[in-house]
Structures are given as structure tokens and as C-alpha cells.
Design brief:
By secondary structure, the protein is an alpha/beta fold. Helices cover about 30% and strands about 20% of the residues. It contains 18 helices and 27 strands. Helix 13 packs across helix 17, helix 14 packs across helix 17 and helix 15 runs parallel beside helix 16. Bound molecules: beta-D-glucopyranose. The site of beta-D-glucopyranose has 7 residues, from loops.
Length: about 725
């Protein structure tokens, strides 16, 4: 029996060995037939090898989408393969090239509700930019990448980096602020780490997609020089950091030509000047032509095949589009697949790491909350003095609001302010996550009476505030794609509510859950103001930690908060003329235009150049500690600055030390300073640290349109160091010769 058993074991082992040997010889044969499957080769080399194997039809299949899930009018035969996502592009199965299975994922994976899945909502992209922490941005992207893979996607549509030129823009929360260096660095870090999860990365919406009003028709008018030194610079910095597989061209026109058929921005700048090797993907229905778009540098139409399907094939066969152009488009798609690693590591569906997501979202939010006002140290809440707190408004008993549109992440259990159980969210519904600040604060302050009033009846809310030691008013300002705000004022009765509560109790704190800047007619009356942005899946816990002082706030504003819309370059966004809303925009060009005459003077630069005082400047944010700056030295040879920061407060905290520079006197753009670097420094009370911050010369150079060259003008550049764009106690000068 024993002998027979070991004999049969031997036979089984022999069979297994033979199977392994035959499998590996098959693989070896396959490898020699498919040399592009060798992961040690460079992505371009692998892409080139595959390209040589493709038929024209296979190449063309890489250049268009196949519909979009959940949008009946955009359904095509292969749409069911989109995995419930925004798009699907066929791969080349016979050669081992996987399809692109694409999902929106600005602050988390979209449509999890409709698909019966779960995804973490990170804080809004603008919120996360307030941390000025590229490592935290990396964790943000990494988490989204992991959630995408867990759901079976291999390409993201995140990475918004359009500059916040127009703070009323409904998508401001999807972007990373008004400064090219900060926005580009933060967005680039997010996308670099997202793509590192084997997800084809994307940076969007290229370019000048700075408002939603008339988004399909608007003509953004700006000189090449100004665009290069502002919005294009932000994209360049982000793309250089992330090396994404894809860049999404925008709906709008740029100097009369659509973003997805613009030879200047696509071929000239992105592909030639910056050497971008990935592919240009159109925004959804943002393609308007076949021959012109292909020639201008659009590589892939989405989500349909209206222009890059049969029409493109006909154009190739008629000799109107050269095969070399098709090869270039296809090569770029293949390159992105090899670059991101989706060929070697296709997605594996799995249970998303919910716990990790909650932790990362909390960490990012804790670094992102900005303390805007804190008179007489009303914060952090001291339970030995504060025995009763009135929490008022903003559905704070239930949850916190989130940003809408294609960025929307679905909350677990459905919209927290609606009856439970509803899965899918509808376009432009205001969605609350079940992250109740009331519950979180009660958990943190077990011996304090924490009562809630919805704020709908001003008298009753004021009465509760009057009878409490401290009042916290929650105000929200919802934002979404496909709309702009009429103004930066809080909507509904929220300003009145804040007026009433601050009148009833001088110890009133306003917590803002906003997607952009907010005007604050009541600012002098509120003792404290906290900007929590759209706070994500763990917003309640992060906020409670900041309010009670378990976390010392360190976030700084990535956008200027103006006192009034009248201080902006445009006091309002003009409506689209009725005749421009109808008809096919490609045959009936719209007259609707925005003139960006402020050029590169975006945000704080505009305020400085115009000598206007904002409500809260770019780079501003308080801490429960105080900070002193000393000992600046500028090293002109290495282009870096050195200085010392001291924590002069009583708590451990983190200061973001900011470095600005101005161009030499008399040069064209010497009227404003620009951010050239920063450093986050964590210090215990009384401790000092001397730091070196490199000056990023990309933001100091000026663009010469005549020869498309960047010029580093010689002269003495002003250097300013401090804790905010308008508070720079250290001054020096950088000599460029
Ligand atoms: C948005 C894009 C989005 C796409 C797919 C468009 O309307 O502008 O940002 O990625 O839809 O949902």
C-alpha cells in the first residue's frame, strides 16, 4: 500500500513536471513570438514592436471609445465591457494587449453606487492641495489607483490641473489651485502615484477650461505668451512630475480653435515642446472633426466613434490622413499601456481596502483643513471651559457635502440626507456623505453638552446659540461640473443664519464645507472660521480632531479668497447668448468668448498687481502654534534659499514656509511675486530648524513667442520668505547673470 502510494506520487510528480516543462516551453515559444512581453524592455520599444504587428483595423480600434456605461444615448455594441465605467477601448487580444477600461476618478472612483461597489472619497483635489504636501498627494493618488484596480479598471480620468482663474467655476474643487507651481506639483504627485498602481494616468482638461458656463462652445482668448506662463505652465509641471499615459483635451476653444483639434496646444506645445509621448484623449464628445483633429494631434476620440471610427478609416483609405499619423496615434496608446504596466499587471478585482481608504482620507483632510480666523484662541475647544456647544446648520447631524458631476463619489448607504437605500446618484444632486460632525464631536467631547439645531428657523437656532458656551455654524457651498456659481456668496439663508448666530453668541465658529472661495460679509463678527473643503470619507473625524486640538491645523489656501467678486478680473461670468446654445457648434461657431486679459496675473498675482486687498490671501492659514522666521541667505549659484523657522507657540505644529520671488525691476512682469518653492516643517514648541529650499526656475523664466524660447532674464530678483503670500518677513535678492 505504502509502496503503491509513493509510486503513484512519483507518477503524479512526473506528470506535473512534464506539464510545467511543456508550459514553460510554450511560454518561451510565446515569448519569442511576443518579444514585447519582456518587461525589461523600454515602453517605447515594446510599443514599436506591437505596432509592427497590427492591421489597420486593429490600429484604428485603439483610437476611439465604445460608448459609456449608464448613458443610454451613448451605448455601442461593446459598451457592456466598460465595467460600468466612462469608457472602453478595445485591446489586441491576440497580441496580449489589454483593453482600456476607463473610469472617472477625480477624488475617488465614480459610479460605485450604480455599479453596486464601494470607493473611498478623498477630500476634494483643491482641499488636498491645501496641504502643500506632495507626499500626502501621493498617498491620495495611490489610494484612488488601488480602488480603481479593485473595481477592475485600468485607466483613470482624474488629474484636473486647470488654474483657478475663475473661482466661480463649478469644477474649482476638482483642480489644485491658482498657482502653477503648487497646482502642478500637487496634481503631478497625485497622478504619478496613481499611475504607479498600474493605472493609465491622465491629466486634464487641456487647456484653459477655466469655467463651465458655455463649456462646449466658449472661446478662451489669451496670448501664447500669457498662456505659456500660466495655465500651460501648470500642465507642464504636472505632466513632468507624473509622466502620465494620457492627457485629456478640453471642450472649450482656445483662441478660436477647439481644444481637441488645436495644433498649437496639442502638437506644438504638448508633443513637440514638452516631448509628451502618451496619447491625447478627447473629453467626452469633445471631438469635432476627423482630418483636422487627427492632424492637430488628437489620438483618441471618446466616448464614441463619430469622427475616429469609420470616417477616419475612409479618410485613410482616401489618402487624406496618412498612415504614419495613424501609426503615431496607435503607438502612443500602446506606449501608455506599457508605461503604466497594465500589460504586465492587469487589474485584479478584489474587495477594496476600506480601512486603509478611511485612514488615508483622514490623514489628507487633517493636513488640508485651513484655519482662517481664531480670535482669542476660541479654538481648539477647551472642555474645561466650554461646557455646552450649539452645532447649527449644514446637516451637521447627518453628514458632510461632496462635489458633484463626473467627479462624484457615491457615499455608502446613498445620499445621507435622503431616505436610505438609494444606490445611484443623479446628475447634479447635492450629495452628503454619512460623516456627521455632530457625532464625531460628541465622541471627542463626552463630558460636554453638544446640541444640534438645523438652522432652518433662525430664531430657534439663535436661542440655542445664546444658551451655549460656544456655537459652531456649518455652512456649505456645493459645486459641480456643468455649472458655475452666480457669486461666491453662501447660498440660501446661510449668511443670515451666521449673522444671527454671531449676534447671539460672540464665541461663534463658522465651519465651511466649500468647493471654492467664499465671501464672508460676517467675517468681523465670527470668532473663528475653519475651511474644511469637501472633506471626503473621514471628514468628520479629521474636522473633530482639528476642532478639539488633537490635530494642529497646518493647511494653507491654494486660492485667494476675495472680499467681493468686484475685485476679480471679471465681476461676473456673462451668460451664453441664446443663439450660441443651439445648433452644431462645429458648423455654427459660437460668438461666446472670455478674454483672459489678466494673462498670467492669476489669483494672488492679480491682487498684488492691482493693489487690491483680498479677504484671505493665497498661502494663508493659521495654526495653534505661532512661527518666527530668521536668518535668510540666498545662494545665487545653486539658486536656493536658506532660513530658520522657530515654533514660538506652545504646541507641536507644522508650518508651511513659502518662498516667493519677483522679477528684476523694470522687466515686463515685475509687478507681482510668484511662488518659487516651499517646505513643510514640523517643530516642537520652542524648536528651530534651518532649511534649504531650492528656487524653481521654471516659474521665473519668461516665454518669448517669437522663437518659442524661455528666457531667464539676468538681473536681481527679489526673494521673499514667510508664512503667506502677503506676510513675508524675510527679504533678500537672487542674482541671475
Ligand atoms: C468631463 C470629464 C470626464 C468625462 C467622462 C466630461 O463631461 O468634462 O472630466 O472625465 O466627462 O465622464
Amino acid at each position: 500500500m505504502k509502496i503503491r502510494k509513493s509510486g503513484s506520487n512519483f507518477v503524479l510528480a512526473l506528470i506535473a513536471l512534464t506539464a510545467i516543462l511543456s508550459q514553460s516551453s510554450q511560454l518561451a515559444a510565446q515569448d519569442s513570438e511576443r518579444p514585447w512581453m519582456n518587461p525589461n524592455l523600454a515602453p517605447d520599444e515594446r510599443a514599436e514592436m506591437v505596432l509592427k504587428q497590427l492591421t489597420l483595423d486593429e490600429k484604428l480600434a485603439l483610437l476611439h471609445g465604445n460608448g459609456m456605461a449608464h448613458v443610454p444615448q451613448w451605448t455601442m455594441p461593446l459598451t457592456p465591457l466598460a465595467n460600468g465605467g466612462a469608457g472602453y477601448v478595445e485591446g489586441v487580444k491576440r497580441l496580449g494587449i489589454p483593453p482600456l477600461i476607463i473610469s472617472d476618478a477625480a477624488y475617488g472612483v465614480r459610479d460605485s453606487g450604480a455599479n453596486g461597489r464601494y470607493a473611498t472619497a478623498m477630500p476634494s483635489n483643491l482641499g488636498a492641495a491645501s496641504s502643500w504636501d506632495p507626499d500626502s498627494a501621493c498617498a491620495y493618488g495611490e489610494m484612488i489607483g488601488q480602488d480603481l484596480r479593485a473595481q477592475g479598471f485600468d485607466m483613470t480620468l482624474g488629474g484636473g490641473v486647470d488654474l483657478v482663474r475663475e473661482p466661480r467655476n463649478g469644477r474649482t474643487f476638482e483642480y489644485t489651485g491658482e498657482d502653477p507651481l503648487l497646482a502642478g506639483t500637487m496634481d503631478g504627485s497625485m497622478m504619478k502615484c496613481e499611475q504607479a498602481q498600474h493605472i493609465v494616468g491622465d491629466i486634464k482638461h487641456y487647456v484653459m477650461n477655466d469655467q463651465e458656463t458655455g463649456r462646449f462652445v466658449v472661446n478662451a482668448i489669451i496670448s501664447q505668451k500669457d498662456m505659456q506662463e500660466s495655465d500651460l505652465l501648470a500642465f507642464h509641471i504636472a505632466i513632468a512630475a507624473a509622466n502620465p499615459g494620457a492627457v485629456m483635451c478640453s471642450y472649450n476653444r482656445i483662441n478660436a480653435v477647439y481644444g481637441c483639434e488645436n495644433p498649437y496646444t496639442l502638437n506644438e506645445v504638448l508633443k513637440k515642446e514638452w516631448g509628451f509621448k502618451g496619447f491625447v484623449i478627447s473629453d467626452w464628445t469633445g471631438t469635432h472633426s476627423t482630418i483636422a483633429a487627427s492632424a492637430a494631434g488628437l489620438d483618441q476620440e471618446q466616448p464614441l466613434a463619430d469622427y475616429f471610427g469609420p470616417k477616419l478609416k475612409e479618410a485613410v483609405e482616401a489618402g487624406k490622413v496618412p498612415v504614419s499619423e495613424i501609426d503615431d496615434h496607435a503607438r502612443r496608446v500602446l506606449y501608455a499601456e506599457f508605461l503604466s504596466g497594465i500589460v504586465d499587471n492587469p487589474p485584479q478585482t478584489s474587495v477594496p481596502d476600506v480601512e486603509k481608504g478611511l485612514e488615508v482620507a483622514q490623514h489628507v483632510e487633517e493636513e488640508s483643513i485651513v484655519l482662517l480666523k481664531n480670535d482669542h484662541n476660541v479654538l481648539p475647544i477647551d472642555p474645561s471651559r466650554v461646557h455646552s456647544i450649539a452645532i447649527i446648520g449644514g446637516h451637521a447631524d447627518v453628514g458632510m457635502i461632496s462635489g458633484g458631476g463626473s467627479a462624484q463619489v457615491d457615499p455608502p448607504g446613498g445620499n445621507a440626507i435622503m431616505p436610505p437605500g438609494k444606490g445611484a446618484t443623479i446628475w447634479q444632486e447635492h450629495i452628503w456623505f454619512p460623516t456627521s460632525p455632530l457625532r464625531a464631536l460628541r465622541a471627542k467631547l463626552p463630558n460636554t453638552k453638544v446640541a444640534f439645531d438645523p438652522g432652518t428657523d433662525l430664531q430657534s437656532a439663535a436661542a440655542l446659540a445664546r444658551n451655549s458656551d460656544l456655537a459652531i455654524v456649518f455652512a456649505s457651498q456645493w459645486l459641480a461640473e456643468d455649472m458655475d456659481l452666480p457669486s461666491l456668496s453662501l447660498s440660501g439663508n446661510q449668511n443670515d443664519l451666521i449673522e444671527q448666530i454671531t449676534a447671539a453668541n460672540p464665541h461663534t465658529i463658522v465651519v465651511l464645507e466649500s468647493g471654492t472661495a467664499v465671501t464672508m460679509p460676517w467675517i468681523d463678527k465670527a470668532a473663528g472660521v475653519v475651511e474644511a473643503w469637501f472633506a471626503g470619507s473621514s471628514g468628520d473625524k479629521a474636522l473633530a480632531n482639528v476642532l478639539v486640538g488633537d490635530v494642529n491645523p497646518s493647511g494653507k489656501l491654494p486660492i485667494t479668497f476675495p472680499k467681493s467678486e468686484n475685485d476679480l478680473p471679471r465681476s461676473s461670468i456673462p451668460p451664453v447668448p441664446a443663439q450660441d446654445l443651439t445648433g452644431d457648434p462645429s458648423t455654427h461657431p459660437s460668438t461666446y468668448a472670455v478674454h483672459y486679459d489678466e494673462g498670467p496675473e492669476v489669483g494672488y498675482k492679480w491682487f498684488e498687481a492691482q493693489h487690491k486687498q483680498p479677504l484671505f490671501p493665497f498661502g494663508f492659514g493659521l495654526s495653534y502654534s505661532s512661527w518666527a522666521y530668521s536668518g535668510l541667505s540666498v545662494d545665487s549659484a545653486s539658486k536656493s534659499v536658506r532660513f530658520t523657522v522657530t515654533n514660538t507657540g506652545k504646541r507641536t505644529g507644522t508650518e508651511i514656509a513659502e518662498v516667493y520671488a519677483s522679477l528684476p525691476e523694470g522687466t515686463h512682469e515685475s509687478s507681482y511675486r510668484r511662488l518659487v518653492g516651499w517646505k513643510r516643517i514640523t517643530l516642537q514648541p520652542g524648536a528651530s530648524q534651518t532649511v534649504t529650499v531650492p528656487i524653481d526656475s521654471r516659474v521665473l523664466k519668461t516665454f518669448e513667442p517669437a522663437d518659442s524660447k524661455w528666457n531667464f532674464e539676468s538681473g536681481d530678483y527679489g526673494i521673499f520668505v514667510g508664512g503667506s503670500s502677503d506676510n513675508t518677513p524675510l527679504e533678500g535678492s537672487l542674482a541671475v547673470r
